[in-house]
Amino acid sequence: MKTNTKQMTLNSVLSAICATLAFLAISTQGLKITFESLPVLIGALLFGPLSGAAIGTLGTIIYQLLKFGVTITTPLWILPYTLYGLYVGYYAKRHGFKLSTKQTFFIVISGELLITIINTISLYIDSHIYGYYYPALIVGLLLPRLGICIAKGIAFSLIAPQIVKPLQKISK
Questions:
Q1: Which CATH number is 130's domain given?
Q2: What's the total number of domains in the chain?
Q3: Domain that holds residue 136
Q4: Of 79-83, 97-101, 114-118, where does mean pLDDT reach its minimum?
Q5: For range 40-44, the mean pLDDT
Q6: Three-state SS string across the chain, please?
């Protein structure tokens, strides 16, 4: 099988996993624990920024359309995972797709922070437009959201290399 076909197939599977993981999120008022960024991370570490962005965009679009339909703020919710894929993929590509443990921790945790910050801004804008949260609640939930973000970043930093290494072998 050609490399492009393998890459497209793996990107499609990772996008579907991204959407599925979004549906399996644990949600409470203002807090959401989700693992949908893991397939974006894996695709970006394997193939670079364009694949990472494509996986993040497509996976999140599928989830958003099936769960909420199209709203004026839909692009705000797609943006974090698209940027995450670009960010991680660019960093991985720049380092020849061979990251040390320290580099992996840096890129994953900083990428998770990027998602959390953009999602918090999106939540503020969305809640302002639709009137469902007060700004004080969003700010008050920032520390727990950052805690979840750091915990996920550490976990993904440990898990991702174990998934990426075998996939690198079969994707060549």
A1: 1.10.1760.20
A2: 1
A3: 5-171
A4: 97-101
A5: 97
A6: CCHHHHHHHHHHHHHHHHHHHHHCCEEECCEEECCCHHHHHHHHHHHCHHHHHHHHHHHHHHHHHHHCCCCCCHHHHHHHHHHHHHHHHHHHHHCCCCCCHHHHHHHHHHHHHHHHHHHHHHHHHHHHHHCCCCHHHHHHCHHHHHHHHHHHHHHHHHHHHHHHHHHHHHCC
